[in-house]
Amino acid sequence: MSIGRRAGRVDLGIVGGGPIGLAVAWRCAQRGLDVAVYDDATPEDGQRPPARKAIGERTGAWEVAAGMLAPVGESCFGEPELTALLTDSAARWPGFAAELEAAASAEVGYRAEGTLVVALTADDLAAAVRITAYQRDLGLGIDRLTPSALRELEPVLSPRVRGGALAPGDHQVDPRRLTSALRIAAGRAGVRFVRRRVADVCEVYADRVVVAAGCGAARLTGLPVRPVRGEVLRLRAPGGDPGFRHVIRGYADGREIYLVPRRDGEVVLGATSHERADGAVTAGGVLELLRAAADLIPEIEEYALVEAQSGARPGTPDNRPILGGWRTGSREVVVATGHYRHGILLTPVTADLIAGLLVDGVALPDAFEAARFTERRVACA
Ligand code: GLY
What we know:
Blueprint: E1 10-15, H1 19-30, E2 35-39, E3 55-57, H2 61-64, E4 68-69, H3 80-104, E5 115-119, H4 122-137, E6 143-145, H5 147-153, E7 163-167, E8 171-172, H6 175-188, E9 192-195, E10 206-211, H7 217-221, E11 226-236, E12 247-252, E13 255-261, E14 266-270, H8 283-296, E15 304-315, E16 322-328, E17 331-337, H9 347-360
Parallel strand pairs: 1-2, 1-10, 2-9, 3-15, 5-12, 10-17
Antiparallel strand pairs: 4-8, 5-7, 6-7, 11-14, 11-15, 12-13, 13-14, 16-17
Bound molecules: glycine (GLY).
């Protein structure tokens, strides 16, 4: 495909070096395209950017994300198209993780023990039952559990816990390991990395352009992608072994949190959710998360607090991602953004759909087209 082209011009330029951009790059390079990824934080050797400070803002949502792969727990009232996409991508995850680990010779921290929904008070239990009943009615795998059954599965849970549920199909992966592995796999497949902030898609020297820049897509495309800030903490268990192995999705005195235990001893505790553009980590946010976590798992008070970060989820008006063709200025691009709370879960299906569009001309589902926000639809096949 590259024969006769001007020097340096590639088949595909991808703006954004997070998991979505990298996975699209990897899949398209596997399909024979000459691909370059543009990102101002990714060194040109594709290796991990230097670590940032322990408290503060990280640029990409993936850098703070816990990595819950939760098609059940993240299914909300009135979002049937999104739920179907989450379920589709969850089914791709085991194969995707195995293929990626082999391609990168690196682990991504995929764990399949499942997720426990845990409610502290009677009101919390009522809220949890309402949403889990809806999820069950959709045919998603979730089963109510008594307090004693919950504590049998995870003895660290507080005796005050009033009840909950088990979602065996809600798994987890480590987004930092995932991103690192994707860089390696993409690099091995021939993808090049350009360390540059793209201010305008016309700067990308490529036949076709994918915008996978999270919240940055708003500036590049004019599409309605807004930052929804989340504060996330990272803890470490004394002795390096968290006393629980399921992901915990907790309801505690009206606060909703999650705790994600890793095999390496890290526990990710999230997340607040604020419609604000700044990246502050607030004392109130940290207090809220820690109080809820310690109410559900008292031994959390003994864990070391090692990181407090804030990241920007790329939200859209209907919470669905934006996948497909779009005209911005004089240039046609393909957009893969707006994944909101689901970027890590939706990585495999997004990569497959975008590669299918670019390489085989397979149309994307209407429900995710950018054109639902205006009429600037373009044919991409
Ligand atoms: N995926 C969970 C969150 O966005 O907080």
